[in-house]
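Example 9 (inverse folding). The structure is encoded as follows.
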C-alpha cells in the first residue's frame, strides 16, 4: 500500500500549479534585471555562457526560467558532499541540508555562508525571493519560509542549475 502524506500531496499539487503559472506568466523571470546590474567575481559574455552551458542550463541560470518539477536527477542524490553552481562550480549547499520537500525540485534548509544572493521578487511576489549564485549571478531558484527546522527555510532550486561533488562536507 502506498502511503502519501497530505503535505506531499499538497506540495505536489502546488508544484504543478506553480510550474503551470510560471510557464504562463514567466517566459524568462529575472528581478527586473537586478542581477544584470550587479558585479560578480565570475563574469562571462552571453556568448561565452551559451558555449559553456547546455540549453536548459542557459535558460535557467542566465534567463531565469524554471525547469519542470520531478525531472532532476539530483532529487534522488543523497550522498555526502556539496551541491555546486552548474555555471561556475562554486559550492552552494551542503548535502546534509538537503531534504525532500515533495515539490519536485531539490530543496535545502540552508545555503553555505556567502554562497547565494537573495533578491526580493518585487514584480511578482508569487515567486517569493529569487536565489542567485553569489559568485556568477546565475539564477538558481527561490527561497520560501515554509521549510523545516532549524531555519524554517526552503531553498527550492532548479536541479539543472546545480552540480554535485561527492565527498566529505
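The amino acid assigned to each position is listed next.
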Amino acid at each position: 500500500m502506498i502511503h502519501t502524506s497530505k503535505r506531499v500531496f499538497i506540495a505536489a499539487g502546488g508544484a504543478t500549479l506553480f510550474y503551470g503559472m510560471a510557464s504562463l506568466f514567466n517566459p524568462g523571470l529575472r528581478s527586473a534585471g537586478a542581477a544584470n546590474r550587479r558585479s560578480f567575481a565570475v563574469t562571462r559574455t552571453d556568448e561565452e555562457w551559451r558555449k559553456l552551458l547546455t540549453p536548459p542550463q542557459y535558460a535557467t541560470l542566465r534567463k531565469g526560467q524554471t525547469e519542470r518539477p520531478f525531472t532532476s536527477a539530483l532529487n534522488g542524490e543523497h550522498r555526502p558532499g556539496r551541491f555546486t553552481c552548474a555555471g561556475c562550480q562554486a559550492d552552494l549547499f551542503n548535502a546534509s541540508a538537503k531534504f525532500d520537500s515533495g515539490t519536485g525540485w531539490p530543496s535545502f534548509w540552508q545555503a553555505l555562508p556567502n554562497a547565494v544572493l537573495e533578491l526580493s521578487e518585487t514584480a511578482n511576489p508569487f515567486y517569493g525571493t529569487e536565489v542567485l549564485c553569489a559568485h556568477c549571478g546565475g539564477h538558481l531558484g527561490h527561497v520560501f519560509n515554509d521549510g523545516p527546522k532549524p531555519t524554517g527555510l526552503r531553498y527550492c532550486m532548479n536541479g539543472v542549475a546545480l552540480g554535485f561533488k561527492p565527498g566529505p562536507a
